[in-house]
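Regression test attached.
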Amino acid sequence: MARYGPEHKGATRRRMIETAGRRFKSDGIDGSGIATLVADAGLTNGAFYGHFASKDDLVAAVVTQQLEDQVARVDALPAGLASVETFLREYLSPAHRDDLAGGCPSAALLDEIGRRDDATKHAYTDGARSMIDAIARHLDDGDAQLARERAIGLFTLVVGALQAARAITDATLSDGILAATYTNAMTIAAASQRSAAPSDQESR
Amino acid sequence: MARYGPEHKGATRRRMIETAGRRFKSDGIDGSGIATLVADAGLTNGAFYGHFASKDDLVAAVVTQQLEDQVARVDALPAGLASVETFLREYLSPAHRDDLAGGCPSAALLDEIGRRDDATKHAYTDGARSMIDAIARHLDDGDAQLARERAIGLFTLVVGALQAARAITDATLSDGILAATYTNAMTIAAASQRSAAPSDQESR
DNA sequence: ACTGTACGATTATGATCGTAATGCTATAGT
DNA sequence: ACTATAGCATTACGATCATAATCGTACAGT
């Protein structure tokens, strides 16, 4: 007795998560109101709470989706260091820097995610773990622990660098950060043998 | 004919910038309202626009101040790689991760700064440049260009890592990221000789 | 063809947003 | 001692916030 076919509601929900992802990444989470978010999906205010319990609920769903998409892209890369290099070139390109809405969710939202509720941070935790594993698979040359360490390094390095490149108005400096980050990323990715980290670092 | 001595207004302004810095870093810029910001400084709404032309004006002043403070702290470190290690241990400590308000402004605000007006981004640009230079001075072993590249790497790496550690709820993974980042930072800081970055990266 | 209902539109809530006009008052200069 | 004013408080503006109740309507099952 429904007004639409059995797929409509799910499709609308997916569309909202998709458009909200773009809006969050370009305007921030706090900076995006419900009215704007639903309008982006071609709806109005009233449609929202039929799909999500709250804005926080949407945020958590968006974070999950965004990270899953990105992990899938990394997983789809052919094995080997060469494809990592290709990925990094694209990630660290001026085009990516200038594309907020379509870009990396971590670069666009990471510090804001750290301030949100536990459901959102938990969604991010799961996504980040998958991402680290996915990157590590491309770096593993026998030492899984080392590959994981490098993967964490690559991930955090490029996220921080992209954020910095976006916050810096001077084109030369911004471009320079992207270029330098490529070199630094390769240093981490290819670090053959390294001394272990000091183990006495307190871990509350 | 003034109600207060000639120092009062400047002192109040400085206090507002200081308390607003803490508030921004813990609640975000978008997440901090004028009423809260002035209340933190022991004042009420009406006092605000006597000191700042707008919220954006305050934000730019806060960014400048926060970065200057941090640069001063780096400059105050004794020369040599050892003091860089000490700084990194503190930066990558769980204590710093858990101290939003008193911590690194870049880790707390960088992606939000990228979305703000040009005055704020310009303030950040100046601060970041000074920070890169300050770090590079500690890494310079003859090759200034290489030192600068490494400095960019250290900076963006630890900022990204601290953000990630804060967004991740799992204590083991969060601590692991901090620990891995120390190792990765040392890899970048000590990378002796490296191949140059590819020069064909487009630079729009 | 009829009807029940699911989906989304409309409208409203109270809170909070950034900004600003106005009011008060304690003191510094005369 | 008097007064002008600097610094802040009070109050208010319209806009927008997240959330929600109500309403309309197009289609699915009968």
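Expected vs. actual: identical. The mean pLDDT of chain B is 91.
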